[in-house]
Amino acid sequence: MSSPRTAAPRTPVNRRRPEWAGRNYSLLTGAAIITNLGSHGAHIAAAFAVMEAGGSVGDVGLIAAARTLPLVLFLLIGGAIADRLPRHRVMVAANVLNCLSQAAFAVLVLAGEPQLWQMMLLTALCGTGTAFFNPAAEGMLLSTVSGEHSNRAFALFRMAINGAGIGGAALGGAMIAAVGPGWVLAADAAAFAVAGALRTFLDVSHVPDRTPGGGLLSDLREGWVEVRTRPWLWSIVLQFSVVVAVVGAADAVYGPLVARDQLGGPAPWGVALAFFGVGTIAGAVLMMAWKPRRLLLVGTLCVFPLALPSAGLAVPLPVWGLCVVMFVSGAAIEVFGVNWMTAMHQEIPEEKFSRVTAYDWFGSVSMLPLATALAGPAESAFGRTPSLWGCAVLVVVPTALVLLVPDVRRMTRRAHSKTIAPAAAAEPAPADAPAPADALGR
User: Fold this and answer.
1) What pLDDT is recorded for position 89?
2) How many angstroms separate the Cα of 190 from the Cα of each of 68, 110, 126, 321, 422?
3) 307 neighbors 392 (Cβ within 8 angstroms)
4) DSSP-assigned states of every residue in 278-332
5) What is the DSSP letter of 19?
6) Fewer CB within 10 Å, N side or C side of the chain?
7) Where are the alpha helices (DSSP H) in 143-265?
8) HEC profile for 113-173?
């Protein structure tokens, strides 16, 4: 047996991931895949849990509003906290809350006779966790990618999580039909637990300490300045405050109802949502290779197809036709999403990522609770079909108006945008190396 000193050098092991996809990027992507597998099915399960308990269309809208109202209330605070505290710790705490609230929701549904107020309360707690999680998670992801690889990294990340959405939506619809919505909610709780455990392995040794600011309100003001001084940013945020609201109402309220009454139940709707996920993967694959020079012009043009699913439900199209329009809209919005993340990465300072993304999220979801709560009364007042056509129109009009903003039409991709954290793409430390003192994960 040869001695250690004379042993032949090891042949390097082939990497199964790109060189720029370091430990943090891989952990963030893997954990996000797991939570998306659970949440896509859970959103469908919540709607059918309400209907199985005897709830009306208005009750389904109230559950959807209960999930999104905390986003409006807590997103800005969550963004300021994520730029003030270690982002990974904020993510972990949010995951714990999501896990506990979904587990309690599952127990309530499985025990039978859940009350509407109980389901709304637990859904609101899950939404609160999301409000603190989203700005921290997006800021963490943006800080792990170097400028020259940002387009490909964001495309791959979105492709992975949207691929998980395909499985989550299809599996969730099938599980609801087979064993009921309670078990789907239980699976979502388990997914949050597993993802939270994975994020405890994030390496934050390269993250610089945050410089104490002038307080939470001062941090929020600084974030607002970043937003209001960029016309491209606030105009698209305003656009999506309308677009997200009407698309959310169509998906969360009208989609399950059309599925129940005209498509044959939850499984076909789950398949249609899965085709949206397939479309997002196709869009992400395209964006892995395509780097359009005019980031926001191309992205905004790709928002128009989001009107197609509402129009398809209004007709209504047969299941195969609905799957086609969901695929097209999924591919198109993914082109927008990658270009949007690249623009944010290129234009926003790292230390303000979470605050700016919080304003982005806040604007995008600010009208969603109102839209989902009013979906039932709108159906009663105007009918389901006119309400769905109205959703389609409210996607087209604000998107057309955004194209009037010069910065949206003219912003160009830089050859090499700023590099945020080179250490994030480095190889993980050897197994016997001491862990950083604050190496906690979500």
Assistant:
1) 84
2) 22, 15, 14, 34, 33
3) yes
4) HHHHHHHHHHHH---SSHHHHHHHTTGGGHHHHHHHHTTPPHHHHHHHHHHHHHH
5) T
6) N
7) 150-179, 181-198, 216-228, 231-249, 255-258
8) CCCHHHHHHHHHHHHHHHHHHHHHHHHHHHCCCCHHHHHHHHHHHHHHHHHHHHHHHHHHH
Chunk the chain into consecutive blocks of 10 residues (it has 442) and report each block's average pLDDT, rounded to whole numbers: 40 53 81 88 85 78 81 83 80 92 92 86 90 83 72 83 78 84 91 90 66 70 87 94 91 85 80 84 88 92 95 89 93 92 85 82 81 85 91 95 94 65 34 28 28
pLDDT given at position 212:
54
Residue 162, pLDDT score: 76
Cα–Cα distance measured from residue 17 to residue 263, given in angstroms and rounded to the nearest whole number: 41
CA 20 centroid distance within chain? 23
Counting Cβ atoms within 10 Å, is residue 385 exposed (0-12), middle (13-18) or buried (19+)?
A: middle
- Could you give the CA distance from residue 247 to residue 251 in angstroms, rounded to a whole number? 6
pLDDT value for 167 = 79
Burial status of residue 235 (CB atoms within 10 A of its CB: 0-12, 13-18, 19 or more): buried
pLDDT of the residue at 423 = 36
pTM for the model: 0.71
Count of residues making up the chain: 442
C-alpha angle 355/29/193, rounded to 5°?
90
Question: What is the distance between the alpha carbons of residues 323 and 330, in angstroms, rounded to a whole number?
Answer: 10
- Alpha-helical runs (H) found in 22-56: 23-52
Helices 368-382 and 231-249: crossing angle in degrees, nearest 10, is 40
Cα Rg of the chain, angstroms: 22
What is the DSSP track for 386-410? Answer: HHHHHHHHHHHHHHHHHTTSHHHHH
Secondary structure (DSSP) of 51-110: HHTT--HHHHHHHHHHHHHHHHHHHHHHHHHHHHS-HHHHHHHHHHHHHHHHHHHHHHHH
Token pair recorded at residue 389: 């056509």
Output the pLDDT for position 88.
Answer: 80
| Whole-number Å distance between alpha carbons of 152 and 148 | 9
| Nearest C-alpha neighbor of 199 from the set 149, 155, 137, 150 | 137
- Say which residues have a Cβ less than 8 Å from residue 435's Cβ, sequence separation at least 6: none
Q: Residue 357: which H helix or E strand, with range?
A: helix 353-365
Looking at residue 97, its pLDDT comes to 93
